[in-house]
């Protein structure tokens, strides 16, 4: 049953992508209702699968593949809601593709990392903040890449840059810094709850998570300061946003990828 739901979710994500791409390529109208309907169905299937993959009678299976699938679900959900107000058609195919791939891999390449969050609600708060901060800042990195791409196309005077399905450059920039601000605040909460609630945060095998996350927090803080105080724009913003997201990816997934995937 789970395999059937997984395949159905992947197909629905692909159908949503198929409804978007022609409009981007041919500069024609995109049927928002069609995209939204298929995306909602895909997200519903995705959520059902996540409940089976993560929640169990012996604890919560927070394996690296399940966590990656959960993060891709959060990002797809947020971006699907944002679709109703903003022209984010350029980003949705990327987001939905990752969701489909992550869900397929998590289902057909099972892995196990059992935790018992019901016994430690403080740890649940810390992990929830970490998931949402990483998801938010990953969206910020996507916006930064879109900003750089649009800027390049405009400077090159490419007609594709004035596609009516693409958002204005200044709007993307404005949303980018709002997203990074929110993500940085949640990352601050993640670090604070880590220091307070996680007693062995800097124990062997875990120290890199705190260190890399703190360096990422510094990068995002400098980026926000540079933008609001010095007017930073352009490539510098993109590099900072992508660097921060990369460090968080290494912090959250680096060692676990080696232990759970490569060494198993």
TrEMBL record:
Keywords: Membrane, Transmembrane, Transmembrane helix. GO terms for molecular function: heme binding. The chain crosses the membrane at residues 34-55, 62-82, 88-111, 123-145, 176-198, 210-228, 240-258. It holds the Pfam family Cytochrom_C_asm. InterPro entries: Cyt_c_assembly, YpjD/HemX. GO terms for cellular component: plasma membrane. Residues 39-262 form the Cytochrome c assembly protein domain. GO terms for biological process: cytochrome complex assembly. This is Inner membrane protein YpjD. It comes from Vibrio sinensis.
């Amino acid at each position: 049953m789970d395999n059937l739901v997984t395949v159905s979710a992947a197909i629905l994500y692909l159908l949503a992508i198929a409804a978007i791409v022609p409009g981007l390529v041919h500069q024609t109208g995109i049927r928002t209702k069609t995209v939204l309907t298929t995306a909602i169905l895909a997200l519903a299937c995705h959520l059902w699968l996540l409940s089976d993959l993560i929640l169990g009678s012996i604890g919560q299976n927070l394996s690296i593949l399940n966590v990656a699938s959960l993060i891709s679900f959060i990002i797809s959900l947020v971006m699907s809601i944002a679709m109703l107000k903003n022209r984010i058609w350029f980003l949705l195919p990327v987001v939905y593709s990752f969701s489909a791939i992550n869900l397929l891999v998590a289902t057909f390449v099972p892995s196990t990392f059992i935790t018992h969050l019901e016994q430690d609600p403080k740890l649940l708060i810390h992990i929830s903040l970490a998931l949402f901060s990483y998801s938010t800042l990953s969206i910020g990195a996507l916006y930064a890449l879109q900003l750089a791409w649009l800027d390049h196309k405009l400077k090159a005077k490419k007609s594709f840059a004035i596609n009516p399905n693409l958002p204005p450059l200044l709007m993307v920039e404005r949303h980018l810094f709002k997203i990074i601000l929110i993500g940085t605040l949640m990352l601050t909460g993640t670090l604070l709850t880590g220091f307070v609630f996680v007693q062995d945060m800097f124990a062997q095998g875990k120290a890199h998570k705190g260190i890399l996350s703190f360096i990422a927090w510094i990068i995002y803080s400098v980026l926000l300061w540079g933008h609001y105080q010095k007017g930073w724009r352009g490539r510098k913003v993109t590099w900072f946003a992508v660097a921060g997201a990369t460090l968080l990816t290494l912090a959250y997934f680096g060692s676990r990828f080696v232990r759970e995937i490569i060494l198993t």
